Amino acid sequence: MKGILAVNHFLNTHKYNELHSHLISHALKENIELTIKTNLELATEHPVCDFVLFWDKDINLARRLENEGLPVFNSAASIEKCDDKARTYTELSGIVPQPETLIAPKTYFKADFSEFVKKAIAILGLPLVFKECFGSFGEQVFLCSTEDEIMTHITEKPFILQQFIASSKGHDKRLEVVGGRVIAAMERFNKNDFRSNITNGGRMKPCTPTDEECKAALAACKKLGLSFGGVDILDGGIICEVNSNAHIINIMNCTGIDISTEIFKEIKRNL
């Protein structure tokens, strides 16, 4: 079986290269010949293969490959739903518990959001969490204690304002789901930041998620159409974010469970 690992041409650091090499080497254990191709290369190519493991967020490329008849994991639709935090919240509304969230109205240039921010503070209280809709590893996510602080983070980019779950300050759980099963889980802690991401200095340890947390993670992945995904859960089984292509090296180092093996088995089950 032959597959393509689609990655972003412009993210060429050790963190990404280590992950890509891991996926390629472990595909061989499942008798899969996985060839790496960047989105720059694929932009001008029409590959022939059995499937594409799409480890990027270039949604237009993923959709084009699907239109050419290639099975893409995760699908373009599911990546799109996860990539946009406002879209994720909307898709999961009424399906799983989430922090109360307000989506900033669409604008086509940098605008005055002071009226929206004032109303959001009245509804969500302070402090609240500011998140740009697109970003990874906790980037462009801020805990804001004043109206002025919120306003300093607003640009022309879309954003959401979210209820701050104080009991989860610097703490969450990452559950890795593959094929409708929770495969591995870890707790993340950060004493110096309200974000628990390992990239921001968080620490990790293996954990056994509760039935409530597993149920929420599985429901979220099912609703978003994910073959595999990383689900971040706050206290009380509250879904914080869902990642369509989570960085699986950290949870492997933490738990000893290699998610890539399960991903390739799931791909073969679906071909």
Written account of the structure:
This protein is α+β, with helices and mostly antiparallel strands. It contains ten helices and 13 strands. The protein has helices at 14-28, 39-42, 59-67, 76-83, 85-92, 114-124, 147-153, 211-224, 248-255, 259-270; strands spanning 2-7, 33-38, 51-54, 72-73, 101-103, 128-132, 141-144, 159-163, 171-178, 181-189, 203-206, 228-234, 238-243. The strands form three sheets. Strands 11-10-9-12-13 form a five-stranded antiparallel beta sheet, sandwiched between helices. Strands 2-1-3-4 form a four-stranded parallel beta sheet. Strand 1 (2-7), helix 1 (14-28) and strand 2 form a beta-alpha-beta unit. It is globular. The termini are close together.
Could you write a compact summary of the structure shown?
With 271 residues, the chain is α+β, with helices and mostly antiparallel strands. It is built from 10 helices and 13 strands.
Q: What low-confidence regions span 5 or more consecutive residues with pLDDT below 50?
A: none
Q: Radius of gyration from the CA trace?
A: 19 Å
> What is the chain-wise order of helices and strands?
EHEHEHEHHEHEEHEEEEHEEHH
Largest sheet: 5 strands, antiparallel
**What percent strand?**
25-35%
Shape: globular
Can you list the strand order of the major beta sheet? 11-10-9-12-13
State the secondary-structure class: alpha+beta
Number of continuous helical runs = 10
